[in-house]
Amino acid sequence: MLKLISFVMPRTRRSKLCAGILGSLILIILCWLLLNLIAPADLTARQPAQVVVDQHGQLLRAFADPNGVWRYHVSIDQVSPYYLDSLFTYEDRWFYHHWGVNPLALGRAAWQRLRHGEIISGGSTLTMQVARIRYGLKGGWADKLHQLLLALQLEWRYSKQEILEYYLNHAPFGGTLEGVEAASRSYFGYPAAQLTRAQAALLAVLPQAPSRNRPDRYPQRAEHERNKVLDRLVTFGKLSIDQAADAKLEAVVATPPKAPIIAPLLARRLHQLLPDQPVIATFLNHDLQVSLEEIARNSLHYLPERSSVAILAMEHGSGRVVGYVGSADFADQQRFGHVDMVTAWRSPGSTLKPFIFGLAMDEGLVHSESLLLNVPLAFGDYRPVNFTHGYSGPVSVRTTLQQSLNIPSVQILERLEPGHFYARMQTAGADLHLPPGARPSLALALGGVATDLEHLVRLYSALAHGGETLKPRLTSADPEVREPLLSAGSAWIIRTLLSQSHDRQRRHSSFAVKTGTSYGNRDTWAVGVTAHHTLGVWVGSPDNAAMVGHFGSVTAVPIAQAVAALLPQTSYQLPPQPQTVTRQTICWPGGQPAPSSLCDEEHQAWILDGMMPRTFMGTVATIPLIPDAQLNLHVAKGSGLRAPLGCLNETDELQVPIWPAAVQNWLPDQWRNRTRIPALDPRCQIDDGLLPDVPLRISGIQDGDRIKVHASTNQSPAINVTAVGGQPEWFWFLNGELLPENGPRLKLPLPVPGHYELIVADQSGASDRIRFVVEP
After folding, report:
1. 483 is catalytic
2. Global pTM?
3. What mean pLDDT comes out for the span 586-602?
4. Among 129, 238, 355, 483, which lies 20 to 30 A Cα-Cα from 364?
């Protein structure tokens, strides 16, 4: 060119022309640099839709962007190679070789349009399409020129990988779908990495006319366009003829764009916690989660209206949450399905009792067979009753825990001290919420506090981790948090006792589960540990309605068992029996080791750190007549009658075991104080007060009486009884229900026909009971 110029032009003119050309080039370069400085093109990504996926990347739930567009971020290596081959072959074979504009393609497109009067093939590169998508350009000549300039700017500022990734995430695919990942998941139900050849070809051509070629609306048109891409792949050697023919046999089947909703409440929770994270990976397994949600929905067949179910399962060792069901049916508004009951504050019922006994063991207050009092007891002005409203007299810690008895549990919490228990639980991550202005009280043992299923699962994880609680982890970003609660020994003992409770455990011998039922049957619980997981189940009504006839053992436990049967095994091994725990034979009533001359009953106890505490004879609030479980008596020689010191010179020593005063009416006659303690020698004027002059008894009706309406008048008589003896105040119980009267006299209207038990108890712990029958 320069030689031609030098031949036809004089030297002066040649110099001016070269200078002009050089100046123009410099001006163009300067303008180009100024344009990039003043108005640089950029690839600021639009806010993606957010996806929550399981541990394998399978979609659980998706959330559209603020404009309602479904756009899931994906990187190049997360897209099927079939799709990339189809995209480059059909749209831009020279993508990695041009600077944003392909002059040959533009020239070919312009010539075809001039020759045929219509567009035969486009000349846009992928970079130009990215410019159009990014800046919303239309199809006019001005926009085309703008597209060219923007494409050059983009290639100047960004790498090919960045430009391609923008296209993969923002190309339109019909309706509110943008990006190949959103299209693949919506139309085919799985990620873009799993596309078949035919599906890849279809998605490669779809952005050309996303509304016109939507496979869910126009499958025949979509199939025609897909086959054009497959033919082009054959033409350029990317597919063989046979491979293309096989791909064409695949029918175009696409569902209407609709994102699945699995684990909806967990997904919503994570969406609110991590709003700027495009992909949130959980530890859930898609298939397991679907099965757990099915268990929850199926349970609705035998639950009252408006009730719901929550399930939480956490792996031992890692704390990874592998199952999360916040409600029985997310779409059921009548059951408040939108309320996440995993995190809702509810009364825990009896589910805190294992930790009362575990901490009491660590404090040296009890062992597994310590004798407790399952009788009407007064703790100051607090008089709890058992859930079954019955009493059985002396019981062990093991029986109390396995049968979830209320009164013995309160007896231990009183010794442990509610404030101390509350503080220890909070330190371990219990998140207990007291009523406004309230202080920790004995009601903690029976659910007089609020917490949620997630924190209960955290507490119970201590039984599988040597006494340390493990905070549930929802995503890998959650740190592993452990807090001490129990010693390894007490945790092992409590887990062992719970795993042995009730016949229901025969199916899952390694499932140590504790039930709970809150006041008024509003909440039913089953929380415990299997060999590999800590899991919890809540059943109740989110609006706090009562569920009459539903209890933790009959409602929540079957669901928990079904969940336990589905959970997979892991490599985790439960801690073995610690060396601090030993097996020991102990004696009742005193609690001393066997053999002993003061042994009425022998029990095999789990002992922690060799501690064998004595039996509690009463409550802190009362002063029992006999403070210890044994008596050293002096008896007159020859008569065997009781002779207090200083009364007679000739006496022998007699040692007898003594049971707590409150359980006397539940003991065999030969073990009762009145039988066991000899009468006072008449020669002695000194009364040691071991036996009251007038023991507490019920007068007016006798044990075993049968009462019926009058045969002729058909009138129902009232029952008039009196408490004789004892110390005021007196408390009356009918079939375990505390009656409002607290005086020595009781007028009781004849109840409906049936069997009844009437108990009177005084402040000292003394009591009497009679059983009677009301006949029709």
Report:
1. no
2. 0.80
3. 90
4. 483
